[in-house]
């Protein structure tokens, strides 16, 4: 299960009543500090010496507490930890928001696998900052080519700054986004792409550039600067996509994705045109994936850089016998990888993925939990690391699923088979900044089972068209050019409108949509009969 | 990406061809279910002169369930909370699949013209709106100036 409490609550209650500071019993803010505390990392302005409320030490501590607790939060129904609620309340005040951002940048350690996710999560959940406070924060960073070079000896701060910039950019697509991305920020991010920089910083600078480029004017500003460089630094980084240094490899993946999807140039061919798909008979299904997951041009590697919980299924289906596939873990954070039928829904924005309903089962080697129906079952293996191999075995003869990490098996799981006994697909969900690579059998397995089993690559089949992982902008352009007939159903536009509702006589619906209706969509009156007309006149 | 329903394609095409006055809704380049929305504050309302950014997302079962809409720009309004969430019946129990992105956005614009403090989402705002309307309107104008106007 992913993590997004406030959204979930919003779903369940018709209206969400924001907690009121004045009546909140369990949140006690400390009194204003009598001594001026140097609250903010600041190398430019005089604001740092003003007394602020509440103090830095407390905010630092609350952030580290949140980071420590986040792993134990496995239930969307659960209240967020009190540290997180306190941070929300602090961030409700503009100075407080600025302080939360500054503290996150200072204290979140480089090595924590959930660090970047926590920055994104907190920024996403905190109240909306005003334009002024965002600009104030960015000005305080005083980002430039020079700061990029000067801060190379502090990759933690640099990495966190880039993560925060990316989340803020995502929150503020549009005009606001442009005000933050001044020349200094672009120079800072582009300088960070030089290979001498810590790979973690390179990676999150790429992601921040990608998020800023969501607004078209920013995209132009970045492209202009990029074009002034002799060799595009992103083109250089693209070569890292097969690196065994796993952070570099992530940067390579993101660089390639950006070049195919955002900063396209005439002199570079789209990667899908040169992907070698000869021996690939099964891959991740580009028509069966939530919107923000990034899939590699060969269809076997996937990555999420959104704050939603993104999911995907593979193209081939298992109905009987024993099946096996392996996953190369590239990032150490939260992914739920396993098996799902088509009945499993991808509710990426609500934080539900594979293992969070009754039709899927998964293993999350970061939190070390087997997931079924959004309930988790703790496992005893050590936390997974980049380079580990997850084995996923589906035994439809004995109705069990067995996961293994580097050949060491977990106890079999059986729950999902009460709901389904066939129609299974390899499937996975990704929290932000997570990535892994699937092997459906096109490559030799590292830890194959000792008995006979099937692989998707051996049993699957794909047409040449199905093997194409088209960049989204090309796919969407093709879609939008489609012609839609005017006599279509006004609800789905898929089928012809042939149904009239009685007694209200409203028409314009197809039979499939009419089936889903509880009342007339036009007048809300109940209907008792459907009149099927071949040539309806609406 | 799951195949995009024709209904969404159709609505997108129409929004591009016949835009609604005072409202801009542009689909995200990489996610056809996500729209970047800007609503202009209605004339003769405390929000006049402001440009309010919203995000609109079409869930998987759209149009059988309502779009999810949220203000990104801060706004002082009794039916909109500090996280930008909107209390509007057609986004909840009064949703009908015959409603569209454009009708939803028009309703939101109408909500700006006619705040309803008796069905509040932001309690403190609603209380003030009922007890001292002129002060509430002053706040709303001030927030509009601070957060929804460039410069």
From TrEMBL, chain A:
The cross-references to Pfam families, in alphabetical order and at most eight, read: SPRY (PF00622), zf-C3HC4_3 (PF13920)
Q: State a GO cellular component annotated for this protein.
A: cytoplasm
Domain named B30.2/SPRY: residues: 262-445
MF GO annotations: ubiquitin-protein transferase activity; zinc ion binding
GO terms, biological process = proteolysis involved in protein catabolic process
What are the residue boundaries of the RING-type domain, all occurrences included?
Answer: 489-524
Q: Which SUPFAM superfamilies match?
A: ARM repeat, Concanavalin A-like lectins/glucanases, RING/U-box
What UniProt keywords apply to this chain's record, in alphabetical order?
A: Metal-binding, Zinc, Zinc-finger
Per the record, the domain of life is Eukaryota
Protein's name in the database? RING finger and SPRY domain-containing protein 1
TrEMBL record, chain B:
Query: What does the record give as the active site?
Result: 87
Which family is this protein grouped under? Answer: Belongs to the ubiquitin-conjugating enzyme family.
Name the PROSITE patterns on file.
UBC_1, UBC_2
What is this protein's gene name? 109540894
Domain UBC core: residue ranges: 3-149
Q: Set out the biological process GO terms recorded for this chain's protein.
A: protein ubiquitination
Q: Which InterPro entries match?
A: Ub_conjugating_enzyme, UBC, UBQ-conjugating_AS, UBQ-conjugating_enzyme/RWD
The entry's cellular-component GO terms read: UBC13-MMS2 complex
Lineage start:
Eukaryota, Metazoa, Ecdysozoa, Arthropoda, Hexapoda
Alphabetically ordered keywords of this record: ATP-binding, Nucleotide-binding, Transferase, Ubl conjugation pathway
Stated name of the protein: UBC core domain-containing protein
Supply one GO molecular-function term: ATP binding
Q: Does the entry feature the keyword Nucleotide-binding, yes or no?
A: yes
Query: To which species is this protein native?
Result: Dendroctonus ponderosae
């Amino acid at each position: 299960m992913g993590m997004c409490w406030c959204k979930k609550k919003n779903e369940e209650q018709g209206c969400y009543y924001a907690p009121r500071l004045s009546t909140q019993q369990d949140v006690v803010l400390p009194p204003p500090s009598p001594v001026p505390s140097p609250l903010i990392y600041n190398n430019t302005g005089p604001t740092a010496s003003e007394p602020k409320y509440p103090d830095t030490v407390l905010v630092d501590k609350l952030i580290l507490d949140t980071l420590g607790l986040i792993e134990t939060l496995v239930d969307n129904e659960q209240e967020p930890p009190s540290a997180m609620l306190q941070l929300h309340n602090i961030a409700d005040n503009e100075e407080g928001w600025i302080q939360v951002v500054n503290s996150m940048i200072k204290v979140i350690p480089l090595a924590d696998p959930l660090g970047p996710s926590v920055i994104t999560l907190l920024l996403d959940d905190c109240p909306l900052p005003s334009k002024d406070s965002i600009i104030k924060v960015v000005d305080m960073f005083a980002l430039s080519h020079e700061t990029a070079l000067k801060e190379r000896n502090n990759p933690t701060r640099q990495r966190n700054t880039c993560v925060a910039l990316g989340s803020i950019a995502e929150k503020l697509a549009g005009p606001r986004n442009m005000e933050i991305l001044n020349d200094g920020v672009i120079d800072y991010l582009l300088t960070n792409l030089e290979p001498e920089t810590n790979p973690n910083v390179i990676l999150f600078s790429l992601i921040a550039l990608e998020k800023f480029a969501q607004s078209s004017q920013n995209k132009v500003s970045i492209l202009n600067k990029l074009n002034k460089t002799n060799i595009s630094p992103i083109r250089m980084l693209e070569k890292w996509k097969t690196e065994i240094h796993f952070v570099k490899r992530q940067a390579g993946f993101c660089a390639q994705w950006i070049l195919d999807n955002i900063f396209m140039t005439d002199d570079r061919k789209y990667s899908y045109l040169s992907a070698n798909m000869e021996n690939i008979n099964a891959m991740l299904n580009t028509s069966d994936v939530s919107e923000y997951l990034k899939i590699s041009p060969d269809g076997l590697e996937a990555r999420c850089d959104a704050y939603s919980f993104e999911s995907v299924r593979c193209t081939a289906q298992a109905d009987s016998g024993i099946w096996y596939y392996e996953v190369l873990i590239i990032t150490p954070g939260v992914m739920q990888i396993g098996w799902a039928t088509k009945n499993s829904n991808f509710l990426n924005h609500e934080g539900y993925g594979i293992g969070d309903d009754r039709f899927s089962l998964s293993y999350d080697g970061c939190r070390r939990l087997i997931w079924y129906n959004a309930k988790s079952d703790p496992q005893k293996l050590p936390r997974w690391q980049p380079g580990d191999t997850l084995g996923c075995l589906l035994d439809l003869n004995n109705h069990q699923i067995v996961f293994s990490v580097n050949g060491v098996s977990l106890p079999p799981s059986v729950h999902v088979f009460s709901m389904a006994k066939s129609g299974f697909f390899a499937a996975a969900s990704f929290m932000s900044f997570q990535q892994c690579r699937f092997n459906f059998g096109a490559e030799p397995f590292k830890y194959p089972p000792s008995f006979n089993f099937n692989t998707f690559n051996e049993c699957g089949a794909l047409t040449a068209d199905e093997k194409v992982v088209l960049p989204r902008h090309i796919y969407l352009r093709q879609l939008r050019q489609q012609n839609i007939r005017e006599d279509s159903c006004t609800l789905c536009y898929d089928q012809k409108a042939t149904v009239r509702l009685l007694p209200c006589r409203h028409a314009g619906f197809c039979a499939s949509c009419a089936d889903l209706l509880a009342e007339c969509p036009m007048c809300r009156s109940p209907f008792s009969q459907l009149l099927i007309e071949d040539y309806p006149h609406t | 990406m799951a195949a995009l329903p024709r209904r969404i394609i159709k609505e997108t095409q129409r929004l591009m061809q016949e835009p609604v006055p005072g409202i801009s809704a542009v689909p995200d380049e990489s996610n056809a279910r996500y729209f970047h929305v800007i609503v202009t504050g209605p004339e003769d309302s405390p929000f006049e002169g402001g440009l309010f950014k919203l995000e609109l997302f079409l869930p998987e079962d759209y149009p059988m369930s309502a779009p999810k809409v949220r203000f990104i720009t801060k706004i002082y309004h009794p039916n909109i909370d500090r996280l930008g969430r909107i209390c509007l019946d057609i986004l909840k129990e009064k949703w009908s699949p015959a409603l569209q992105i454009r009708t939803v956005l028009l309703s939101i614009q109408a909500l700006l013209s006619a705040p309803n403090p008796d069905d509040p989402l932001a309690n403190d705002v609603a209380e003030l709106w009922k007890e001292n309307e002129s002060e509430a309107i002053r706040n709303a104008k001030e927030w509009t100036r601070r957060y929804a106007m460039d410069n």
